[in-house]
Amino acid sequence: MGSQRPPSFALLAFLSLLCFQKILFGVEASNEESSKVYIVYLGEKKHEDPDLVTASHHEMLTSLHGSKEEALKSVVYSYRHGFSGFAAWLTESQANTIAELPEVVSVMPNGVHRLQTTRSWDFLGLNYYQSTGLLSRANYGDGVIIGMIDTGIWPESRSFSDHGYGPIPARWKGKCVVEPTFGANNCSRKIIGARYYAGGVSAENLEGEYMSPRDFNTHGTHTASTAAGVPVSNVSFQGLGAGMVRGGAPRARLAIYKACWGQEGECYDSTVLKAFDDAIHDGVDIISLSIHGDGYPAGSLPAVMKGITVAFIAGNEGPAPQTLNNDVPWVITVAASSIDRSFPTVITLGNNKKLVGQGAFYRPDKDQFKELVYGKSCDEESLNGTNVVGKYVLCFDLATVSTTIPRQVIATQLGTVLRARAKGVIFGHYTSFLMDYLLVLCQGLPCIAVDVAIAEQIEDYIDSVGKPMVKIEPTRSVVGQVQSPSVASFSSRGPSTSYPELLKPDIAAPGTNILAALGDSYGFDSGTSMACPHVAGIAALLKSSHPDWSPAAIKSAIITTASVSDGYGQPIMAEGVPRKLADPFDYGGGQINPNKALDPGLVYDINPKEYLKFFKCTFGLQGGCDPKQRPLYHLNLPSIAIPNLQETVMVQRTVTHVGKVDAVVYKAALEIPPGIKMVVQPSVLVFNARSKVQTFNVTFMPTHKAQGFYGFGSLTWYDGPHSVRIPIAVRTIIQDFYADTF
């Protein structure tokens, strides 16, 4: 990052210091009760000498107070290195007066903020400084090894410091592959192993690449730091999202397997499978793969059979249904959800009407209002003959606006407008997540996304005046003002087409606008690729807390304790056109809840050999292979999906008591899918010191004969402290292979 930072970073970085000083030193305007601390932001420094910068602040305040002594007394902080500004005790009228000065960019009251992480882990309840809960109980993941199969790693990132780490675990059998671009010192007590796999990779994908575990693409560095990066303070992207950045299991060790190559991050079956092969040998506990595919059963199933928990992405082809990737039963398939951080950007029209969009504008504009023109769809034809040089352009045509994620549309519009030398763009579109895309495409220029309703207001304003004007303020980072989580519009949805008797995805985790390491710096990215390492980090914490748990038990704990309501107690929504209530094909069990997963009460465990009974001996593995085809809903999964209910179907499930109290009674609570009769026998389960495992049956019967739609429900076992919930999806049919079309 450069030395200059926009106001949002300045505020977030210093507000807590101001509050601390006030508390610690009793700074109060006791004789001027109407005074309070304001922050005056002046933008770029006018002098390189910091003393001259401070002197200019004193001059401004002396002019305001009429006395140098009063000016010096009012100063709380002088910001004089990265940017120019100050915090001072002012009355409201003094603040208004100083805001009118031409050199002043902004004046705002000193808010009280707690120190923030880059948000997703705090949003999930894993507060780094909390003395209770999963993070502290797991000792921050110490002793667990996470294998990352991705595009490699940038080892110099501060997120991978090994300061304070003990010796590498004695059980580790991996190695550090040394090349000219990746030295022996690039491995450490944090990055304990690093390999790369270039055999079979096309020459095109190797062009410009590092022939080593070093990350050329940056994707692998981002995911590794999300899963297990150490805490790094005072991180932001151009002032946005400022705070501490860290991974979910910050004391876990990392093993890097570079299997994906080139700027596009293409992953080859041969390289991925070799990475699995080495990871199993090396002794990893968790494997995270932010890779599209079929779940790589030839590599992932042997890993699970060795006790390794494997997390995969669901994919980024949503919101269309039946777009899932990696839908095999032994892995955790991860959907993406939002967090409670937004990036509001204020748009002021020439009539002083203020509207708010979402943007990534971090280069403050010294000029104020600019002319605004209507570019319709912003293609070359609609802009033909329109002078947009130095102006803002509204790109919005209700007749052609996309009902899906308009990323390619935005790329085309932006290229057309910027080639015409416009100042910036306001995009009108249906709701979707575009922040990371705007960051990449706009590079700090004013590119603001608004919804259709606001776009129409801007269009109406343009039509109502002879010379429409607009002012765009720098983007701010705001936490807690948006309803969240919601399932991201890009997140792939079920049902599974390969295995419709599997309910996938399994779980949703934060995957939008995640700030993590990118090379030597930090940046935002979105996708199920970002959600997957969140689950990997949580799985590492659970493994550290419960080293005897199997991959199935860890998966069960994650799914059965998930939340189906947001932070306001409302049902979680799924983004798309239109936005809708989320269902199990959007988020599986729901939004991951790591602290509850620490103590799930019951788990649906599976001996890995059981998986072999359901795939007609197709994997060539020994130990229980059954040549008959059995419906996958008979597998002891923490979910039930019946895609073809014609007659009565009974499924069996077995739960294992893992709670702290030996004697406990669980009762069943049913949410029954519509059009279905559902019965659980027995409806009460009793556990004690001798009886830790109980089996029950769930019977499904259609209440009418129809070629129906999927209905959703759940089965929850509860004992008071615990609610062990599994999602259910059932579709009634009257005939197999009956096309669902009209």
Spatial strand arrangement across the major sheet: 6-9-5-12-13-14-25
Biggest sheet features: 7 strands, parallel
Percent in helix: 10-25%
Helix count, per DSSP?
Answer: 18
Distance between the termini: 56 Å
Q: What does the overall shape look like?
A: globular
**Per DSSP, what share of the residues sits in E-state strands of 2 or more residues?**
25-35%
**Overall number of strands:** 38
Mean pLDDT: 85
Characterization of this structure:
The chain is 23% helix and 26% strand. It is an alpha/beta fold. The protein has a seven-stranded parallel sheet with strand order 6-9-5-12-13-14-25, sandwiched between helices. A seven-stranded mixed beta barrel has the order 16-17-21-20-19-18-22. The chain is globular and about 85 Å long. Residues 1-33 and 111-118 have low confidence and may be disordered.
How is this structure best summarized?
With 742 residues, the chain is an alpha/beta fold. Helices cover 23% and strands 26% of the residues. The longest helix is centred in the N-terminal third of the chain and has 19 residues, at 7-25.
SSE map:
Layout: H1 7-25, E1 36-43, H2 50-65, H3 68-74, E2 75-79, E3 84-90, H4 92-99, E4 106-109, H5 120-123, H6 134-137, E5 145-150, E6 191-196, H7 203-206, H8 219-228, E7 232-237, E8 240-245, E9 253-258, E10 260-261, E11 266-267, H9 269-282, E12 286-289, H10 297-305, E13 309-313, E14 332-337, E15 341-342, E16 344-349, E17 354-359, E18 370-374, H11 380-383, E19 392-395, H12 407-419, E20 424-428, H13 435-442, E21 447-450, H14 452-464, E22 469-472, E23 478-479, E24 486-487, E25 507-510, E26 514-518, E27 521-525, H15 528-545, H16 551-560, E28 573-574, E29 580-581, H17 584-587, H18 594-597, E30 602-603, E31 640-645, E32 649-657, E33 664-671, E34 676-681, E35 684-687, E36 693-702, E37 710-718, E38 723-732
Parallel strand pairs: 5-9, 5-12, 6-9, 12-13, 13-14, 14-25, 18-19, 19-20, 20-21, 24-28, 31-38
Antiparallel strand pairs: 1-3, 1-4, 2-3, 7-8, 10-11, 15-23, 16-17, 16-22, 17-21, 18-22, 26-27, 28-29, 30-32, 32-36, 33-35, 33-37, 34-36, 37-38
